[in-house]
Amino acid sequence: MVENVIQTQIFELTGGRLCLDFTNTIEDRPSDHPHELLNNYSDLVSWGKQAQALTEHESQQLLARAERHPGEASSVLAQAIALREAIYRIFKAVAEDAVPEADDLVSLSAAIAEAMTHARIVARAGGFTWEWIDTAVNLDRMLWPVVRSAEDLLISDELDAVRVCASDTCNWLFIDTSKNHSRRWCDMKSCGNRAKARRFYSRKKSASVDV
Ligand SMILES: [Zn+2]
């Protein structure tokens, strides 16, 4: 059981919002050698499951369908990556007080409009809620909550708290919910410590040069 949990924790979910976690599925983006974490359709399903955009049952249904429709699965993966990069550029621009590219906003709007064709208002005890329909037959089903999350964040007060990780090799996005709005790293344990270690070694190096 424990082994199973460890195996499913492939992705780091440090963004604080589903749409930001989705943009953080590539490592070392600004470097010459970015490390892609979504290399096939099943990676996309694994991410969706770990990020709770998909249930276990939905994940199994999608993987089975993808096996029967491999061409469709690879075009969904390509579509997912293009959308991820558009969402990334939009929120990176926001974090840097710049205006996002109009084309990226158009792409996101189109994805939101498409996702909402699969949304229904349903009654539940004490009120109503959104529910997704046709979840077993649409291979892009994990992208629907992602674009909804992007839409919600873009029009929310929390938009001011979107940050880019201060590590120049990382550039992951996150919501800074720290009390004094001073969080600089996507994750203190990885990027924060790496940066600290680099500073430590460069201090040591310059100290030894001085001697
Ligand atoms: Zn980082």
Fold topology:
Elements: H1 2-8, H2 18-23, E1 26-27, E2 35-36, H3 41-50, H4 56-68, H5 70-95, H6 102-116, E3 119-124, E4 127-132, H7 143-154, E5 162-164, E6 173-175, H8 188-210
This protein binds zinc ion (ZN).
Structure description:
The protein has about 210 residues and is mainly alpha-helical. It has 8 helices and 6 strands, in the order ααββααααββαββα. The protein has helices at about 1-10, 20-25, 40-50, 55-70, 70-95, 100-115, 145-155, 190-210; strands at about 25, 35, 120-125, 125-130, 160-165, 175. Mean pLDDT is about 90; it is low at about 1-5. The chain binds zinc ion (ZN). Zinc ion binds near residues 165, 167, 170, 185 and 191. Zinc ion binds near residues 165, 167, 170, 172 and 185.
Question: How many β-strand stretches?
Answer: 6
Question: Major sheet: order of its strands?
Answer: 1-2
Rg calc: 19 Å
What's the story with the biggest beta sheet? 2 strands, antiparallel
Structural class assignment: mainly alpha
Small-molecule components bound: zinc ion
